[in-house]
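Input chain follows. Return structure tokens only.
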Amino acid sequence: MGQPATLKKISEQLNLSISTVSRALKNHPDISENTKRKVKELAALMEYEPNAYAVNLRTNKSKVFGLIVPAISNMFYDSFISAVEVEARKFGYSLMILQSGDDPLLEAENLKLCKLNRVDGIFISVAPDTLSTQLLSKYRESGIPVIFFDKVPDAINADTICMADEEAASLAAHTILKYKKKHVLALFGNADLSITKKRKQAFLNVIAQHGGKIKTSVHCCKNADEARLATAEALASRNRPDHVFCMSDELLIGAMKTILRAGLQIPQDISILAISNGFIPGLFYPEITYIETSGFELGKLAIKRMLENMESITAPKAIILPSRLVEGGSI
């Protein structure tokens, strides 16, 4: 393989100064169109590529965003990442994707990696008991935009992009009331997360407003396995629930494992409703009715807000994506 093309080699071939060649490649108005054409044609022929590292040092921009999620395997975060990556690439940015595993210490280590790699901005869905809120506030103050999404810290003055969590949970409760269920097993996520608190409170408020006509058994589960065990315990009880509500796809997976192993027919023996990104409900028959929370749409809102901040950091915004009911055959 030959030596890579450089500005110096192009300038020597055309008998031009290096500065003239550089300005021609950047479409500088002081360079004639004829010179620009000659320089660009030779640059293409010689397969010249700018030294990205040198450009980044000169501009103090890495053209990389850090993106920290609890788990890439989660379909919601997978679709969120997809939307951010597609839009970021259009503007010349790449992503450095990191997983926290909902571990606050690992999350802090990931943020150190972001700083070491001089990222231009950070997207983060925080871990329970996060230790990084103050550090992220300092990043923003230093000019590094930070976008909190999905799982966001309580009482923070920052850009947040979230689903309409109260609306989604309220819509779920109203749907269950519509079908006149008698006993609901309601599975919520990690009790320490703001998203869990919001969804749980909104759900129970709607049930309470209707005079407590429905017996509601509430369990907070940190993962699918805990949801599986909570469902198994409920089904083994004398007063078995006739409906299961799952706050997320992960909890839906756990609940469905128990229901299917028990040989129960849906919706004849027990009905199901979930808040979901939409992929997991379609894997079952009948398909699970769900309140849609689109990771892809949330990702598009997040990258749009990030790019606004790249122009100039403005006052923080709290952006909410509305929810909607998607009918399946599980109720």
